[in-house]
Amino acid sequence: MQEEDLEHPVKVLIVGNGAVGKSSMIQRYCKGIFTREYKKTIGVDFLEKKLSVKGEELRLMIWDTAGQEEFDSLTKAYYRDAEACVVAFSTIDRDSFEAVESWIKKVEDEVGRIPMVLIQNKVDLIEEAAMTKEEAEALADRIKLKFYRTSVQENYNVDQVFQYLSELYVDEL
Ligand code: GDP
């Protein structure tokens, strides 16, 4: 048997309003880079990252929305067979914070309940925050998701988000 056969391919989504940092996060996590250039096209539907969690070999395929965040414009193919999801909002974008629950509903309507994690990105810009710490924590409590503050720019907590999500996934295997 080839080693590949032991690997679990996992389709992971990152959802959230435009410009919260989804593409940047995928590039940071999968390629180790961060660019300022706005909305570059990754050029493929997803990037991959291999990791080993609790003795299981995972191959995360992390799908980008490719600028189609406008509600309902994401195709069924984007959601199909997704097995884990990062829900993201931005520290400096109140609308993105208020859209979190509708993104979760959208994912659950398409693929049912899957492991999820909530992130507040751009925490390097906390001085300009459009929501209080208490509001963000209250949201996480209400929707019962583990909550991370991240900065893709500073490479803060990015690995931790995917590590945690992968552990949730493996626990359900
Ligand atoms: P997407 O539309 O959600 O995929 O967002 P992008 O990844 O295209 O990011 C939108 C903008 O936010 C880009 O200019 C990024 O460089 C910037 N950005 C992403 N993450 C961070 C972060 O953690 N901190 C700051 N300050 N800017 C970020």
Automatic annotation (TrEMBL):
Superkingdom of origin organism: Eukaryota
Keyword check for Heme: no
Keyword tags: GTP-binding, Nucleotide-binding
An example Gene Ontology molecular-function term: GTPase activity
Record carries keyword Endoplasmic reticulum: no
Official protein name in the record: Ras family domain-containing protein
Species of origin: Salpingoeca rosetta (strain ATCC 50818 / BSB-021)
Residue window of the full protein shown: 1 to 173 of 228
